[in-house]
C-alpha cells in the first residue's frame, strides 16, 4: 500500500528515531528505505514481545521509538505490550500490519480478521485503521495527536492485496 520511501519520510517528519521490528514479508519491504534514512535506526528483534521492551527502553533513554509488527505479533506480544503501555505508561506508537484484510483469499480461513481489532480494543489501544493509500496523512495526524497527549497509539495498516 505504501512504499518504503513514504514510510521512512513519514517517520522522519514526525520525529521517530528508532523503528523496532520483527522481520516480516510485507512490512519488511520498507526496511531498505528506513535504513537509508540517516535519522532512523532500524532495530530488528527476535520476537514481538521483545519489541515492546526494547522500544520502552529506548523511550526511557530519550529516543522516540516506534514498534512495527504484524497483527499476529500483536497477539504474541500482549504481556510485554501491557507492561510497557499500561504499567509503565509509556507513549509508544506502533504500525501494525493487518494480515489478509484486503484479500482474504490469500489465506482462506485466516482468523486475523476476527481477532485483530477486538484485541486492540481489549488492550485499550487508540488505533486508526488504514485501508487506502490516501490515508498516509491520517497516520501522521494520529501519531502526532498521540504524541501530543503522551499516550500510546497505533496505525493498523491493511495488508493482503494480491
Give the SSE map.
Elements: H1 4-13, E1 18-21, H2 31-36, E2 41-44, H3 48-60, E3 65-70, H4 71-76, H5 78-87, E4 93-98, H6 112-122, E5 127-130, H7 136-149, E6 153-158
Parallel strand pairs: 1-2, 1-3, 3-4, 4-6, 5-6
Helix pairs in contact: 3-5
Question: What is shown here, in short?
Answer:
The protein is an alpha/beta fold and 162 residues long. The chain contains seven helices and six strands.
Characteristic key phrases:
about 160 residues, Rossmann fold
Largest sheet descriptor: 6 strands, parallel
Average pLDDT, to the nearest integer?
A: 95
pLDDT < 50 stretches = none
What share of residues are in beta strands?
15-25%
Number of helices in the DSSP assignment = 7
Number of domains: 1
Shape estimate: globular
What is the number of beta strands? 6
CATH top level is Alpha Beta
InterPro entries: THDP-binding (IPR029061), Thiamin_PyroP_enz_TPP-bd_dom (IPR012001), TPP_dependent_decarboxylase (IPR051818)
Protein name: Thiamine pyrophosphate TPP-binding domain-containing protein
Pfam family, one: TPP_enzyme_N
GO molecular function, one term: thiamine pyrophosphate binding
Amino acid at each position: 500500500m505504501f512504499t518504503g520511501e513514504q514510510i521512512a519520510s513519514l517517520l522522519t517528519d514526525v520525529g521517530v528515531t528508532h523503528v523496532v521490528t520483527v522481520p516480516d514479508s510485507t512490512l519488511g519491504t520498507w526496511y531498505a528505505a528506513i535504513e537509508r534514512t540517516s535519522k532512523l535506526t532500524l532495530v530488528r528483534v527476535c520476537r514481538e514481545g521483545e519489541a515492546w521492551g526494547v522500544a520502552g527502553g529506548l523511550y526511557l533513554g530519550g529516543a522516540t521509538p516506534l514498534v512495527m509488527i504484524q497483527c499476529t505479533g500483536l497477539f504474541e506480544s500482549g504481556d510485554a505490550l501491557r507492561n510497557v503501555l499500561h504499567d509503565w505508561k509509556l507513549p509508544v506508537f506502533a504500525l501494525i500490519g493487518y494480515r489478509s484484510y484486503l484479500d482474504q483469499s490469500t489465506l482462506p480461513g485466516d482468523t486475523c480478521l476476527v481477532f485483530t481489532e477486538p484485541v486492540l480494543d481489549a488492550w485499550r489501544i487508540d488505533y486508526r485503521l488504514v485501508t487506502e493509500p490516501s490515508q498516509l496523512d491520517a497516520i501522521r495526524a494520529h501519531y502526532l495527536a498521540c504524541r501530543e497527549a503522551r499516550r500510546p497509539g497505533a496505525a493498523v495498516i491493511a495488508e493482503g492485496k494480491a
